[in-house]
Amino acid sequence: MQFKKIAFLIISVTLLFTGCGSKDEKKEIIKEKQTKFTLQTNDLNRLNIEVKDKQVSIQELQGKAVLLNFWATWCPPCRAEIPHLNNLKKKYKGQLEIVGFNLGKKDGTLLSQEELNRFIEEYEIGYPITNSNDNFEIANLVGPVVSIPTMFLIDPSGKVVQKYVGIVPEEMMELDINNALGK
């Protein structure tokens, strides 16, 4: 009799903790976030970017400080900072790269490549611009970016060392760039 009680208890506990399954059950699929991207720039070059744990690796720009600029053509402060970014690009030639990540129109759609090229020509942008839906995902991985312009300064090892929101004086960025370059 004692044996039947113990066996019943063991079977009950086992069923309680294992539960029942059904072949019709929906299984939750955990999707890994994409962390590697290949983007084409306006000058038809490719950038292989990996963003992981606040580290940003751009294969083609390794060993340089990089300023990631998240912006849009309709944003007045974004347009106002273009001459400053061009100046920094010239001043730190060979040591600093700037990459612009266009975040599209106000309605969330991307510009056509022709529209973007006209804008680049009109504002004489001297650094590469990407125009991809992946720009939004990269903005979330690095940031998140909640307003524009937002920039991230990446040191030569790939570490995010500074975040700028809004228009920032060129002189302030120079101090941070010098620090990132170990000067």
Characterization of this structure:
It is built from 5 helices and 8 strands, in the order αββββαβαβαββα. It has 183 residues and is of the alpha/beta class. It has a single domain, classed as Glutaredoxin (3-Layer(aba) Sandwich), CATH 3.40.30. The strands form 2 sheets. It has a 5-stranded mixed sheet, with helices on both faces. Strands 1-2-3 form a 3-stranded antiparallel sheet, covered by helices on one side.
Short description:
This protein is an alpha/beta fold and 183 residues long. It has helices spanning 2-18, 76-91, 113-122, 134-142, 170-180, and strands at residues 36-40, 46-52, 55-58, 65-71, 96-102, 129-130, 150-154, 160-165. Helices cover 34% and strands 23% of the residues.
Supply the key terms.
alpha/beta, Glutaredoxin, 5-stranded mixed beta sheet, 3-stranded antiparallel beta sheet, 23% strand, globular
Q: What's the alpha carbon Rg, rounded to whole Å?
A: 25 Å
Helical amount: 25-40%
Order of helices and strands: HEEEEHEHEHEEH
The CATH topology annotation reads as: Glutaredoxin
Main structural class: alpha/beta
> How many domains, as an integer?
1
What is the terminal separation in angstroms?
84 Å
Strand-helix topology:
Blueprint: H1 2-18, E1 36-40, E2 46-52, E3 55-58, E4 65-71, H2 76-91, E5 96-102, H3 113-122, E6 129-130, H4 134-142, E7 150-154, E8 160-165, H5 170-180
